[in-house]
Amino acid sequence: MGRIARRVHQAGAYFVTTDTWQKHPLFINTVLANIVVEQIVSCRDRGFYKLHAFVLMPDHLHVLLTPGETTTVEKAMQMIKGGSAHRMAQESPQKFPVWHAGFHDRWMRDAGEYRGSKQYIEQNPVEAKLVERPEDYGYSSASGKYALDFSRFDEVRG
Fold this sequence. Notes:
Layout: E1 14-19, H1 30-45, E2 49-56, E3 60-67, H2 73-91, E4 104-107, H3 111-127
Antiparallel strand pairs: 1-3, 1-4, 2-3
């Protein structure tokens, strides 16, 4: 049975979640975690998307992004997942896949939904009891270590 093709491409920000293969906590390994974060930032720097927030947890990834003009959400995630898996295979060969096939995405309809998703991303390591404050988690945009892009929703007040 083939995959269902996505039929709608809407401009705007997306909240995207993907898991590691069989929810293995691969990213407790700092070398592997750094590869994924470097890939997220590199793809942003190359213009595949605007990056609004992210958090890499031990067994999953949340990203809030706006695809570039010539990039789809699917292409953005392929660049993150495929690129990081390729680099990990060179660094530390695995006997199993890195990522679960596919991902879940949600198009941000308004500023409230966008802010809620961004807050969810930032609070994820706190809720998982990995850190006490969002800025203390190094594999998150909340750490303040990574350049982020503004969204039209960042300018909306109210």
